[in-house]
Design goal:
Elements (H helix, E strand, L loop, with lengths): L4 H11 L6 H13 L3 H6 L7 H15 L4 H5 L1 E4 L2 E4 L12 H10 L7 E5 L5 H9 L4 E6 L2 H13 L6 E4 L14 E4 L4 E2 L19 E2 H4 L1 H13 L5 E5 L5 H11 L2 E7 L5 E7 L8
Parallel strand pairs: 3-4, 3-6, 4-5, 6-9, 7-8
Antiparallel strand pairs: 1-2, 9-11, 10-11
Helix pairs in contact: 1-2, 2-4, 6-7, 10-11
Length: 286
């Protein structure tokens, strides 16, 4: 016997009680099954589901109950103003990362032309969000993974941002020859390889290569800091996302690399999340 929409969601909430957000997850999965908005869920609670819809929904709830992230189950996640396709080949875009986008846009709020490179682009979230706000800028996205680049290119097409350029390579080595960006931005791997969080929750399902880094999670950040100083044009900016306890270490590495005007910004939870620095002008003045 089929269920009403509300009965199915209530069942799912009970099944997902061990998770942090059972009702939110249950509603997202139902929106995916019905291809509808949350408003429709609330206003059509008595809608009777077909047997096929019930079975599909139950299968998705079982997957979520094992810990598989909703974004991987539904194949999509919202970021900034965009709807992005996500697969197990890329990290799930998170709200905290929007801080990087905000700061890049704030660096050039006068709309002057800028060349911006997103290193380790993954799903393309950062690059595409920036490109959606500044279509006249040259936006470069680099990743070492063919699978990730395929997802990022798909997201560019889905969001009609076909002017974004994609390149394969390791960090700055993947940039076009002789390119000198005004801004380099990256959300690199920054979790220590021994961190127990890697074996818990959603992180169990995300690509380890995009999460963990050697040297207490700092190895890729250090490489990026050194490379960024060489590739940026004078007066250019670098911005990194990092762990909540890595702000001091990242500020120090940027200083050692030669950057100034260094500062760390907090995310929506009040934790250190983004550190940025400026490459000095050729005359030594900011």
């Amino acid at each position: 016997m089929s269920q009403t929409l509300q009965q199915a969601i209530d069942w799912a909430v009970d099944e997902l009680q061990a998770l942090d957000t059972p009702r939110v997850d249950a509603e997202w999965l139902m929106m995916h099954v019905l291809d509808c908005t949350r408003t429709r869920l609330l206003t059509h609670a008595d809608l009777r589901l077909t047997q096929t819809q019930c079975e599909h929904y139950q299968q998705l709830v079982v997957r979520r109950k094992t810990g598989e992230p909703v974004a991987y189950i539904t194949g999509s996640r919202g970021f900034w103003t965009l709807d992005l396709s996500v697969t197990a080949d890329v990290l799930i875009p998170r709200a905290d990362t929007e801080l990087l986008v905000e700061q890049v846009l704030a660096l050039a709020d006068n709309n002057q032309f800028r060349v911006v490179a997103d290193l380790g682009t993954g799903s393309g979230a950062i690059a595409l969000a920036i490109a959606s706000e500044r279509p006249d800028w040259r936006m470069i996205a680099v990743d070492s993974s063919d699978a990730a680049l395929a997802v990022a290119r798909k997201n560019a097409r889905l969001n009609h941002l076909d002017h974004v350029e994609f390149y394969k390579g390791d960090w700055c080595d993947g940039l076009p020859e002789a390119l000198q960006p005004h801004i380099l931005v990256s959300n690199p791997p920054y979790i220590d390889a021994d961190d127990p969080h890697l074996t818990a929750g959603d992180l169990r399902f995300e690509p380890l290569s995009a999460l963990r880094a050697a040297d207490n999670g700092l190895s890729d950040l250090r490489t990026l800091s050194n490379q960024a100083f060489l590739y940026l044009r004078d007066g250019g900016w670098v911005l990194f996302e990092h762990g909540f306890n890595q702000g001091a270490a990242v500020r120090q590495m940027l200083q050692i690399s030669g950057f100034n005007s260094i500062k760390t910004l907090q995310d929506i939870g009040g934790q250190d999340r983004v550190t940025m620095g400026k490459k000095p002008e050729v005359d030594g003045h900011e």
